[in-house]
Design goal:
Elements: H1 2-12, H2 22-28, H3 30-37, H4 41-49, H5 51-61, H6 77-83, E1 94-98, H7 101-105, H8 108-120, E2 124-126, H9 136-140, H10 144-163, E3 168-170, H11 173-186, H12 191-198, E4 200-201, H13 203-209, E5 219-224, H14 227-231, H15 236-245, E6 247-251, H16 270-277, H17 281-287, E7 292-296, H18 299-307, H19 317-327, H20 348-376
Helix pairs in contact: 4-5, 8-19, 10-12, 11-12, 13-15
């Protein structure tokens, strides 16, 4: 179905008489929006969460006014990784951790947990330094030419590792699914695309494939699978890994969480988005005990869980493993998500400097605009 949708939208909007809605550009090019916002995340968050400004931002982007906007991280995952000096296992077996848009620019604490989980197993984490994106949102909105360009950039960036047979691990299921499915459809004759497709793994799938033992943790877990992961590997690896840790797992069955990528953000779709979530995910999260850890790797699934007012925050599998390493074999505590780490932040001086620079540019632009208007009178 996603393939049919992408092809239809691509051909439908080839006609000059048809224009894409605003949300297609805002969400389709979210990687570029996030890349720009990462220069001054504090100001970007101010603009998207101050009542009056937030409403204007949502109106401009075609987003439902009732849907909260995700906050940009104080520091990107790539910046954190570079500032720590790269991997802590320089002689370990190499693995590429793909810095997807959502875990690089928004949920960086998930990325940190993924790096630490893989390094705790003795592997050497490699992370691209430049901006890369799988193009998933572009594909969803029928921007197939642009999505193909993005994938060529990914292949060019990873080429040495692909030809060396280095496995590629994804943190965000929807992004990794692009490598397993859409990649070879858009680049069917590219040998390196075939190499990437055949040697890429969802996070739990990587641990299962290479026989990596997880840390121990006692308790209960409610597991929810992202739709793209269910379609490109399933949830057996996640359930198996959690059970190996010592958790009693309820692998929840159901349809979509309701957010469906960015669909639930679009104006006019908020109510039906929540109705979809109420079919399975949201009631199960509300009914879960306070000592039950809610596990969901997908950015959209985690966002829907929080936006729906369940009072819970779902954890990525890597965050659960981090919790296990820090808590030892102890049972999961009440509201275990409270014990997980916050997003990393740059030094105070750097935050002040880049915010001051942005303010100076804004003030200078306003002054220049005023001078131009005055000169015209």
């Amino acid at each position: 179905m996603p393939t049919y949708k992408a092809e239809f939208l691509y051909h439908h909007f080839q006609s000059p008489s048809r224009t894409r809605p605003r949300h297609a550009y805002a969400s389709g090019f979210i990687d570029q929006d996030a890349r720009l916002a990462s220069r001054v995340p504090a100001l970007a968050n101010l603009a998207t969460h101050t009542p009056g400004l937030a409403r204007l931002a949502k109106l401009a982007a075609g987003i439902d006014r009732r849907r909260p906007l995700p906050r940009f991280a104080p520091m990107t995952l790539q910046e954190w990784f570079a500032r720590r000096g790269g991997t802590t296992n320089p002689t370990g077996r190499p693995v590429v951790l793909f810095p997807d848009t959502f875990d690089n620019y928004f949920h960086t604490q998930v990325g940190v947990a993924c790096v630490e989980a893989i390094e705790a197993a003795g592997w050497r984490v490699i992370m691209p330094e430049q901006h890369v994106c799988c193009g998933r949102p572009l594909y969803d909105y029928g921007f197939l030419d642009q999505a193909e360009q993005y994938l060529h950039r990914v292949i060019d960036t990873l080429r040495p590792h692909l030809r060396a047979g280095t496995p590629v691990v994804g943190m965000e299921p929807s992004c990794l699914a692009v490598f397993k499915d859409e990649l070879t459809k858009l680049l069917p004759h590219d040998d390196d695309a075939l190499r990437l497709s055949g040697n890429s793994y969802h996070f739990a799938e990587f641990f299962q494939t290479f026989g990596i033992e997880p840390p121990a943790l006692r308790g209960k877990a409610l597991l929810w699978g992202h739709c793209h992961q269910r379609a490109t590997g399933g949830m057996d690896a996640d359930q198996d890994l959690l059970e190996k840790m010592g958790l009693e797992v309820d692998n929840l069955k159901g349809g979509c969480c309701g957010l469906a990528g960015s669909w639930g953000f679009e104006s006019g779709k908020y109510d039906i988005s929540l109705d979809c979530g109420e079919q399975a995910l949201l009631p199960a999260v509300r009914d879960a005990g306070q000592d039950c850890v809610v596990v969901a790797d997908g950015f959209s699934c985690k966002t829907q869980t929080e936006d729906a007012g369940t009072g819970r925050r779902a954890l990525h599998l890597a965050e659960v493993m981090k919790l296990a390493r820090e808590e030892g074999r102890e049972a999961v505590s009440r509201r275990p998500e409270r014990a997980t780490a916050a997003r990393p932040k740059p030094l105070l001086g750097r935050r002040v400097l880049r915010t001051s620079a942005a303010v100076a540019v804004a003030v200078g632009t306003a002054v220049a605009a005023s001078a131009v208007r005055a000169a015209r009178r």
